[in-house]
Design goal:
single chain, 110 residues, alpha+beta, 6-stranded mixed beta sheet, 2 helices, 6 strands
Length: 110
């Protein structure tokens, strides 16, 4: 399983060599085949995943060419104290944000 800290410097983020969880345990990069997808209801039907004992709601999707934007989006959510997971597939990157209650004062949206 490949994971990388998304709050690391840009040059370090771009390395695929990391194989341990992020230091704060709040951000992961993994292949989409390693997560369990599900649907949930919150004023409408939404996509979610179960990964590393946490539930995540689907955020933005990015093409393979938009890798930096995916990492930047994850870093913005992480800065708000949210747990973030990015899944990668042959089609691109998907940003997922933890469905746990957001820290007080944050205004993150999916």
């Amino acid at each position: 399983m490949t994971m990388i800290a998304l709050n690391a410097p840009a040059a370090q983020r771009r390395s695929w060599a990391a194989t341990s969880p992020a230091p704060n345990g709040s951000t992961f990069l993994t292949h989409e085949s390693l997560v369990q997808p599900f649907k949930y209801w919150d004023d409408g039907l939404h996509d979610g995943i179960f990964y590393q004992r946490d539930l995540y709601g689907k955020g933005n999707c990015y093409s393979l060419a938009e890798r930096d934007q995916a990492f930047d989006g994850a870093a913005q959510h992480t800065a708000l104290g949210l747990h973030v997971c990015i899944t990668v597939s042959d089609q691109g990157y998907t940003l997922w944000v933890s469905l746990r209650v957001a820290p007080q004062g944050s205004s993150a949206t999916l």
